[in-house]
Design goal:
27 strands, 12 helices, six-stranded antiparallel β-barrel, single chain, six-stranded antiparallel beta barrel, alpha+beta
């Protein structure tokens, strides 16, 4: 027993010496081990009831929208890229800058094998499998794949696209029976400062949600250009919107879709997202589902903001001009406005008694009118006021309005329209004159370099008669990149114009 105690005491002394570092102060008492270990943690906070309610509103809205929001993957024809020897990179037309990096390119700028790929978002709008998205998301799509939040994929097809508003509709080829359509709100009732959620598949990821407020609402114009020429109102939000969010919904906290996310604007002041108000997007979608296209009333003028003109340009228009109005820059040959007597440099101050403060007001008012409606334009011409009644036509399709002579890399750079007796008389030509009238000249194109202008009438190409816009295009196609000799009528004179060869 004594021996045991002695050994135990020696062991304690050794531990004391080891722990105490050999200090002469004596033994260091080691506290006995306990069954519980004390851990320091941050204090539990009590969130205010208002914050909890707001958090639940965000979470509930995101959960409610999840089954209706989809990712839209598209395949297009493989684009050409910038190669090591400086070959020009080409992308699908009208693809916004923020969307272009979604098109895949291989090393050194060479295009990846196979089709190009793009990603966007969309929202289910009915039980039949129709999905609302942006036109630029599905432009040129040869294959459309729709992915839901649960990972299930379905084949889709483009029902219709409207580039004027950047709205498109995709339909599921075999829609499932458990589709959930999003609840559609009223964008006119949306208020600045109201909380909103942006839902979609940014950067090709799975469904994500960002939150913010409505930063601004207003009319589009020169300072605010949306992705469609006929988007007349916009919703601005500071909810984070990234590439791939295009076509996804912007929702209020009632779970109602109030806009379609379409544009990102990044600058020194930060990044803001823009959405097409759902009231306009829904009207376009209904037309696309019914007819496959959106039909617009057509006035037949190109207008600009009067207050944006330089002082010298304003002085040329006469005296006593209003502070704000729309000035006519171009009148479409044979169009409704020209038939009614509207001229370039006319200053449009009112339509049907409604004040016009700029070009966007003209587009907005005319777009809301049924085709065939007669409207009254009040204008100022050379300082004198006047009025004219115009019967609105139907906006021609891109193919009908201007058959642009473009063949592979040999773009001529003009839009042409067949010369009708009405157009011929408007241009001061005999009614039986045959030819193609120039409606558009692309800046920097071969036609622009040759000095061609809108309202020029092409009578011959390479000494062969031009009888219509179709025959003009065919004559250009015969040698798309070569030099062409054109006989052109401008006003009362006829001249020859040499179109340079393509570079």
């Amino acid at each position: 027993m004594t021996s045991f105690k002695r050994k135990t005491g020696m062991a304690v002394g050794l531990v004391a010496a080891f722990v105490g570092g050999g200090l002469a102060s004596g033994l260091m008492v080691v506290p006995p081990a306990t069954s519980q270990t004390t851990t320091s943690v941050t204090p539990k906070m009590q969130a205010p009831p208002e914050a909890r309610a707001l958090s639940r509103a965000f979470a509930g809205t995101a959960k409610a929208l999840a089954p209706s929001v989809v990712r839209v993957d598209v395949e297009t024809k493989a684009p050409q890229a910038q190669g090591p020897r400086g070959r020009q990179r080409q992308m699908p037309d009208d693809v916004p800058d923020f969307f272009r990096h979604f098109f895949e390119f291989g090393p050194e700028g060479m295009p990846s094998p196979g089709p190009a790929h793009g990603t966007g978002s969309g929202v289910v709008i009915d039980m039949k499998g129709f999905i609302l998205t942006n036109s630029h998301v599905v432009k040129g799509a040869e294959k459309v794949t729709v992915t839901f939040h649960d990972g299930k994929e379905f084949d889709g097809e483009v029902v219709g696209r409207d580039e004027e508003t950047d709205v498109a509709v995709v339909r599921l080829k075999k829609p499932p029976g458990n589709l959930v359509a999003a609840r559609i709100g009223d964008s006119d009732k949306l208020e600045v400062g109201e909380f909103v959620l942006a839902v979609g598949s940014p950067l090709g990821m799975d469904q994500t949600v960002t939150a913010g407020i409505v930063s601004s609402k207003g009319k589009t114009g020169n300072r605010m250009r949306m992705s469609g020429n006929r988007v007349r109102q916009y919703i601005q939000t500071d909810a984070m919107i990234n590439p791939g969010n295009s076509g996804g919904p912007l929702s209020n906290l009632d779970g109602e879709v109030v806009g379609i996310n379409t544009l990102i604007n990044t600058g020194p002041g930060g990044a803001y997202g823009f959405a097409i108000p759902i009231n306009q997007a829904r009207r376009v979608a209904q037309a696309l589902i019914k007819d496959g296209k959106m039909r617009y009333a057509f006035l037949g003028v190109k207008v600009a903001d009067l207050d944006k003109l330089q002082e010298q340009e304003r002085n040329q228009l006469g005296k006593g001009l209003p502070a704000r109005a729309a000035v006519v820059e171009v009148v479409t040959p044979g169009g409704p406005a020209q038939k009614a007597g509207v001229r370039p440099k006319d200053i449009v101050t009112k339509i049907d008694g409604q004040a016009i403060e700029g070009a966007s007001d003209v587009v907005s008012y005319i777009s809301d009118q049924p085709i065939g409606t007669q409207v009254t334009l009040s204008y100022v011409r050379e300082g004198r006021p006047g009025q004219v009644k115009v019967t609105l036509g139907e906006l021609p399709s891109a193919e009908e309005e201007a058959k642009v002579a473009s063949v592979e890399d040999g773009r001529v750079g003009i839009g042409v329209q067949s010369l009708t007796p009405e157009i011929a008389e408007a241009l001061g030509l005999p009614a039986n004159t045959k030819g193609a009238v120039v409606t558009e000249v692309v800046p920097g194109s071969r036609a622009d370099k040759a000095g061609l202008q809108p309202e020029d009438t092409i009578l011959k190409i390479n000494r062969k008669d031009v009888t219509s816009s179709e025959s003009a295009v065919e004559l250009f196609k015969a040698n798309p990149k070569g030099r062409h000799l054109l006989q052109v009528r401008r006003g009362n004179t006829s001249r020859f114009v040499t179109l340079p060869p393509a570079n």
